[in-house]
Amino acid sequence: MTTIDDQPHDPDNAPTQPAETAALSMAPVAEPAPMPAVKTRYDGVAMLFHWVLAIAIIGTFSVGWYMADLPFSLTRLKLFNWHKWAGVTILALSALRLLWRLWHRPPADLPMPAWQKLGAHAVHWLLYAAFFAVPLSGWAYSSAAGFPIVWFGVLPLPDFVPKDKALAESLKQLHQLFAYGLGLLVLAHLGAVVKHVVLDRDGLLRRMLPGRA
Ligand code: HEM
After folding, report:
1. H or E stretch including 65?
2. For strand 150-151 and strand 155-156, is the pairing parallel, antiparallel, or unpaired?
3. Which of 47, 72, 131, 156 sits at 20 to 30 Å (Cα–Cα) from 145?
4. Residue 84: what pLDDT?
């Protein structure tokens, strides 16, 4: 019968002495490197930008739609000014939002077919493009029409196109085109969110809402 004493002696596998074992058990054990936390929702600043701009854009779009056909009056004049001031504010906030977005990664895509991921990214980036195209074309239209913008009545903004009636007419149409384009993108965006909430039930909306994970 083979006993342990009969085994060839291997110093590496030799049983350790009790004191040695105790010392080993007290030796500091290397901690595994911490796993980077998986981001499951947008950060607070991105959410703030999203909701402030969503409200501002829907409000400014609605005022623009309503005021366009009003007969000449003081109300129409006031609405035009507020519409322009809001547009310039949206432009400035969008610039800050874009910088924030480029420096802070959004959460990873939820599992969904590749074409849906592509569609979602395309709509998001086209929305970002519209955040600039709509107010900038409106600003240029106002300048070409000979109405320089004084932001909230205090800060005169430069005219970056000359006063020109024909140019003003073209810029008006461009501004409308961009605004309707933005409207369609928002409808596509809302349709996708509703699909995720009602059909997929995959928690997509929670990614843009504050609260616990
Ligand atoms: C009730 C209205 C709205 C809801 C419920 C909503 C919801 C959401 C949600 C859940 C996301 C995150 C999607 C994801 O996780 O992939 C998102 C992203 C986004 N939303 Fe909205 N949204 C609304 C209105 C708007 C409006 C009006 C705009 C613009 C005019 C807008 C522009 C965007 C953009 C650009 C993103 C991408 C954000 C980024 O990746 O930086 N949303 N929205």
Report:
1. helix 44-68
2. antiparallel
3. 131
4. 98
